[in-house]
Amino acid sequence: MSVITHVVIGSSAPKKLQIGVKKRPAECLIKSKKGDLLHMHYTGTLEDGTEFDSSIPRGNPLTFTLGSGQVIKGWDQGLIGMCEGEQRKLVIPPELAYGAAGAPPKIPQSATLTFHVDLVKIERKDEL
């Protein structure tokens, strides 16, 4: 007699970036693109809802150049085409965040991250 065991390992974690628009302004004069300097407020949480970082209590938005690798890949991809004043929810798989290693102690290994982001301001290269 033989026993056959099937093991199915499943995860509800997304395999690709998920982008949800939570609020879009009525008027959008410019949309974010690679090379723009973005000023973003954000709150990051783990899958269980634990907050690991937020710019809001500090009162200063994070400033970075979109598409330059200054932030995780999920941000460089998920923030393209945003309007000033737009709010998005990004669900980012580990491959586009901190990978298998995570970012101890706050971000565990292979963590899927959720960010609530608010684009405060866009500065274009030719406007700097």
TrEMBL record:
Keywords: Isomerase, Rotamase
GO MF terms, alphabetically ordered: peptidyl-prolyl cis-trans isomerase activity
EC number, UniProt record: 5.2.1.8
Domain PPIase FKBP-type, chain residue ranges per copy: 35-123
Domain of life: Eukaryota
InterPro entries per the UniProt record, alphabetical: FKBP2/11, PPIase_dom_sf, PPIase_FKBP_dom
Reactions catalysed: [protein]-peptidylproline (omega=180) = [protein]-peptidylproline (omega=0)
GO cellular component, one term: endoplasmic reticulum
PANTHER family per UniProt: PEPTIDYLPROLYL ISOMERASE
Full protein name: peptidylprolyl isomerase
Species: Arctia plantaginis
